[in-house]
Write a structure and sequence with these properties.
With 462 residues, the chain is of the alpha+beta class. It has 3 domains: 125 residues; 146 residues, DNA methylase specificity domains (Adenine-n6-DNA-methyltransferase TaqI, Chain A, domain 2), CATH 3.90.220; 167 residues, Adenine-n6-DNA-methyltransferase TaqI, Chain A, domain 2, CATH 3.90.220. The chain has 12 helices and 28 strands. The strands form 10 sheets. It has a 4-stranded antiparallel β-sheet with strand order 6-13-10-11. A hairpin with a 7-residue loop joins strand 3 and strand 4. Helix 3 packs across helix 4 and helix 6 runs antiparallel to helix 12. The longest helix is centred in the middle third of the chain and has 46 residues. The two termini are 18 Å apart.
């Protein structure tokens, strides 16, 4: 590998390597050294570790929380403030501009960023605090901690039952990979430049995805409320918020066209049969994962019953807002049971189930149902009477079929574009991760790298 091109042939490897002594790392450039953070830094500590809720004030000394730490950058939104006297009494816990702070506990364990100048001399709540020495660049250390190598180190050092933690004692044993300081600067500058290019491309793709999703939703909402003929005759619906509807459409309620939560009585004699089983996480928008089979008698009590061609809709937040709903098809023996957090709507002869499926995704219905949700915390649910009594305009069945076929054709094309854009984002994120990892572990040599005089933001050449 020494002296050869790597990372898709774009960058050179270092001329000489040595064994790093770290099993997960392998070889390291011969002039780099491995040091624990306890040796490579001036200070490693933790922020305030006791309850501070009683000392929150509208103004005062800012307190940094784990939620403010993002991958490589500080998010200064949604800040809280401490009583100044309390903050002064705990002055030994402050952070300073340029310190590296890392998440101490939870799902983003080890995630690190640099304290910006405007938050100099403030407090943190249970975050790890690192003050670097003269031989360690804070930005280089941040890239190292956030890299795939750094995450492997955090995984090696973490402990805890149920909730992972990384304490000061363990964090001091984090192995940093140290080239000379000037080389750290070059690596950080290189990564700033290259990741900025990738981030710009990712942002463009994410904006495209957002626009496509907005257009997709607008097409569904317009089609199920105004029909497909823009020049067709309209009439007043008699409902203020519904406005004008196409002539021939009938104002109705959901309860008149579909049965909500059908009774289980006629599957009582099928207790020995197999059926599909659907936990909540296997119900997505237009997707039903059918990889679990149960015996009807095992699930008939305590779970929601449905059959092929029923419309399934999540009732609990955030699944409802995410439009986790589908027309059930392909069920084992035509029968399914699932989470009690699923609503089942069985269409009658007045409405096509595929049309009902799209009608339930329309903006006004979603807004009314979301606003009516009740319950504690993250378990808020849409009340059944909101669904049953929702007023809408129902087209004739022939027109229903034309509308859902049009929507299905449009959304299929739109979803294909969204999937391609999301795949492009995934590839770029993988490229970003690989580039950072290669640079901070010495797999590529960027000492001679120069930023292009005219940096094209539109493409990334591998």
């Amino acid at each position: 590998m020494a002296g050869e091109k790597t990372l898709s042939g774009k960058y050179m490897a270092y001329p000489e390597y040595k064994n790093s002594g770290i099993e997960c790392l392998g070889m390291l450039p011969s002039h780099w050294v491995v040091q624990s953070l306890s040796i490579a830094t001036k200070r490693i500590s933790v922020g305030l570790a006791t309850s501070v809720t009683g000392y929150y004030r509208d103004k005062g000394v800012p307190i940094i929380r784990n939620m403010n730490i993002k991958e490589g950058y500080f998010d200064g939104s949604d800040m809280l403030y401490l009583d100044e006297k309390f903050a002064a009494a705990n002055s030994g816990k402050v952070v300073y501009k340029g310190d590296v702070i890392a998440v101490h506990t939870g799902s983003n364990l080890g995630l690190a960023c640099i304290v910006p100048e405007e938050f100099d001399d403030c407090h943190t709540f249970t975050t790890l605090i690192v003050t670097t020495s003269e031989g360690l660049l804070n930005k280089y250390l941040t890239y190292c901690i956030n890299s795939a190598y750094g995450k492997a180190e955090v995984h090696r050092l973490k402990f805890g039952f149920g909730k992972d933690n990384l304490n000061v004692k363990e964090f001091k044993c984090f192995y940093t990979l140290l080239p000379e300081y000037s080389e750290q600067e070059k690596i950080a500058y290189f990564l700033d430049h290259e990741t900025d290019k990738i981030d710009t491309l990712i942002e463009k793709q994410q904006q495209l995805i957002k626009l496509l999703k907005e257009k997709r939703q607008a097409v569904i909402s317009h089609a199920v409320t105004k029909g497909l003929n823009p020049r067709g005759p309209m009439r007043d619906s008699g409902i203020e918020w519904l406005g004008e509807v196409p002539e021939g459409w009938v104002v109705s309620k959901i309860k008149y066209v579909a049965e909500l939560t059908p009774k289980k009585s006629h599957v009582e004699n099928a207790r020995t049969n197999k059926c599909s089983f659907i936990p909540m996480e296997k119900l997505k928008t237009d997707i039903l994962v059918l990889d679990e089979v149960r015996i009807v008698g095992e699930v008939i009590d305590g779970y929601t019953y449905f059959e092929n061609e029923d419309v399934l809709m999540a009732k609990v937040t955030p699944c409802f807002e995410n439009k986790n709903m589908v027309v059930a098809r392909g069920l084992e023996n035509g029968i399914g049971f699932g989470s009690s957090e699923i609503y089942v709507l069985r269409a009658n002869s007045k409405i096509l189930n595929d049309y009902l499926y799209y009608r339930l995704q329309e903006d006004i219905f979603m807004e009314i149902a979301t606003a009516s949700m009740s319950g504690a915390g993250g378990l808020k649910r849409v009340p059944s009477d909101i669904i049953n009594n929702f007023i809408f305009a129902l087209p004739p069945k022939k027109e229903q079929a034309a509308i859902y076929q049009y929507i299905r054709s449009y959304t299929s094309k739109c979803d294909d574009l969204i999937n391609k854009a999301e795949y492009a984002v995934t590839l770029m994120q993988e490229r970003r991760t690989a580039l950072i990892s290669a640079a901070v572990t010495g797999k590529i040599d960027v000492r001679s790298w120069q930023a292009p005089k005219s940096s094209a933001q539109g493409t990334i050449n591998d």
